[in-house]
């Protein structure tokens, strides 16, 4: 008798197959596969982000499966996952469909009530999903299973949460299930990583492709930021792999796949600083040459010594994503961040000094945030970008996320909740600037956000994003530098003029090409 099989489906993050993959393997479902394989189950992963015929593969794989597992975050993954679940429901009406991931964890009722899920795994899912699969395989009910939501007699029942499972007690993610080259070929350029690397070294953009590996060395976060859903999903718990385990896994993975960069997608990589620096030392001792980047808090970086920052850089760290969030002390306190605006700037200075590109992330427009507070954030972004042009600064419009401390405040302040899962799928994390978001910005400030994010900062970043700049690009970059340095952010007429000129030039080129290919009418009938 063949081993029982389980199918795991990773929905598309964007509408087009292959769009925005950044070589990212589906770690969310790969983590579930390890315990299942160890228990003797056959596991098949269908990743719609890189597989063109994913629906056909899914229908075929589910023919004799114990269940279908789907993971998603907020955004288009919801829509694609729902469409896949509906197809499976029509073809195999008796096949159980189980959802997980942070968004189903905070809104299990919606998935169960809309009929796309039979059960939702909430929070950390490796052991919970294994127990669910074993119950389904044996025909038992779900009585006593912790950490799930299930619909019984028309009512959604949520069971008590499961205790935290230490990552060291779980098997390694079975990366061998996936073809690395498929992910590399889906986006060989990974332009953002190449830009960060060029900015860290203050070098021109390299045309060489990068081989990127996403890896998770810890789960959870002890912080309680009011705009973030992590606290609600993880209950502020944190567990991590030890340095030896991380290096033992990454060594063969990076060597066999010729990986250039490892992206640690931990929610908070530096919770245990001792672990990080032991990891750096172990990597150097083994002579592993891959570069890496991760996430950190501004206060964590600000407290690091010069020797520690030198150790990070020497170990291959070339960028850190830093949740600076706001330039206003009042707003930082309201969203429960423990650092100060001054630490934001000190953090940027320290990282740039040690050839590590800071990726500084700000959020504007939270409920009750004053116009003055938002202006403080703009001013801080300007100061940092003027002093450290190779710092990457992102300004996000606040997006209310279910399960966060600010969510109900946002609803009270006028945020209109989508009435369906499809509505939630139209907005999202993967495309943070798109879709209907909570708008606590005046029209003038909204324009400032757009100009800083989409015009001025983009032109300042051009030397690290392009191998060679044209004459017009060099001129416009100088204008952007001056505008940001002196705060002249209104009426970007030079950029409007350049855009209009580019459109006219493009139209002229099209007309010329059309004239060249159009057949020439003869002047008269051919002579006999």
Explain what the structure shows.
There is one protein chain. The protein is of the alpha/beta class and 528 residues long. It folds into 2 domains: 5-165, Cobalamin-binding domain (Rossmann fold); 188-398 and 440-486, Alpha-Beta Horseshoe (pyruvate-formate lyase- activating enzyme), CATH 3.80.30. It contains 22 helices and 15 strands. It has helices spanning 27-38, 54-61, 76-91, 102-106, 108-113, 126-138, 180-186, 191-201, 230-234, 243-256, 273-285, 298-302, 306-314, 329-334, 341-353, 371-387, 407-412, 421-425, 443-460, 462-465, 471-486, 493-517, and strands at residues 5-10, 42-47, 65-71, 97-100, 119-121, 148-152, 155-158, 212-215, 218-220, 238-240, 261-264, 291-296, 317-325, 357-364, 392-397. The protein has a 7-stranded mixed beta sheet with strand order 2-1-3-4-5-6-7, with helices on both faces. A hairpin with a 2-residue loop joins strand 6 (148-152) and strand 7 (155-158).
């Amino acid at each position: 008798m063949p081993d029982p099989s389980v199918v795991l489906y990773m929905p598309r993050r964007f509408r087009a197959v292959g769009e925005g993959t950044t070589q990212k393997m589906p770690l969310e479902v790969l983590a579930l596969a390890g315990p299942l394989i160890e228990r003797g189950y056959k596991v098949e992963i269908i990743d719609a982000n890189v597989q063109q015929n994913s629906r056909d593969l899914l229908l075929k794989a589910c023919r004799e499966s114990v269940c279908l597992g789907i993971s998603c975050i907020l955004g288009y993954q919801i829509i694609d996952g729902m469409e896949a679940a509906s197809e499976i429901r029509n073809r195999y009406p008796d096949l159980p469909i189980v959802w997980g991931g942070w968004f189903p964890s905070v809104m299990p009722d919606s998935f169960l009530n809309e009929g796309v899920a039979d059960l939702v795994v909430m929070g950390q899912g490796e052991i919970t999903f294994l127990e669910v699969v074993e119950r389904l395989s044996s025909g038992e009910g779900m009585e006593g299973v912790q950490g799930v939501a299930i619909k019984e007699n028309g009512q959604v029942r949520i069971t008590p949460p499961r205790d935290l499972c230490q990552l060291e007690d779980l098997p390694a993610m079975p990366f061998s299930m996936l073809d690395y080259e498929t992910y590399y070929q889906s986006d060989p350029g990974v332009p953002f990583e190449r830009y960060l690397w060029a900015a860290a070294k203050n070098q021109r953009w390299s045309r060489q492709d990068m081989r990127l590996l996403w890896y998770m060395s810890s789960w959870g976060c002890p912080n309680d930021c009011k705009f973030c859903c992590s606290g609600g999903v993880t209950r502020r718990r944190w567990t991590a792999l030890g340095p030896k385990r991380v290096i033992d896994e990454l060594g063969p993975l990076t060597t066999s796949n010729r990986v250039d960069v490892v992206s640690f997608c931990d929610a908070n990589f530096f919770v245990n600083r001792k672990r990080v620096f032991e990891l750096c030392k172990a990597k150097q001792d083994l002579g592993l040459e891959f570069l890496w980047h991760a996430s950190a808090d501004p206060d964590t970086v600000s407290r690091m010594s010069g020797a520690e920052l030198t150790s990070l850089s020497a170990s291959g760290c070339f960028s850190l994503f830093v949740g600076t969030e706001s330039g206003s002390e009042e707003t930082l306190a309201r969203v429960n961040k423990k650092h100060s605006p001054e630490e934001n700037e000190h953090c940027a200075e320290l990282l740039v000094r040690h050839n590590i590109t800071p990726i500084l992330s700000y959020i504007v427009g939270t409920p009750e945030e004053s116009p003055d507070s938002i202006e403080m954030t703009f001013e801080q972004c300007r100061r940092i970008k003027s002093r450290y042009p190779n710092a990457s600064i992102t300004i996000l419009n606040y997006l209310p996320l279910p399960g966060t401390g600010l969510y109900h405040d946002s609803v009270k302040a006028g945020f209109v909740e989508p009435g369906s899962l499809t509505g939630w799928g139209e907005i999202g994390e993967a495309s943070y600037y798109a879709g209907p978001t909570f708008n606590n910005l005046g029209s003038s400030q909204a324009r400032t956000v757009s100009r800083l994010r989409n015009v001025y900062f983009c032109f300042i970043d051009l030397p690290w994003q392009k191998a060679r700049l044209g004459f017009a690009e060099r001129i416009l970059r100088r204008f952007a530098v001056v505008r940001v340095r002196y705060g002249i952010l209104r009426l970007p007429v030079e950029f409007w003029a350049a855009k209009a000129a580019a459109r006219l030039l493009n139209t002229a080129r099209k007309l010329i090409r059309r004239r060249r290919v159009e057949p020439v009418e003869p002047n008269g009938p051919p002579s006999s």
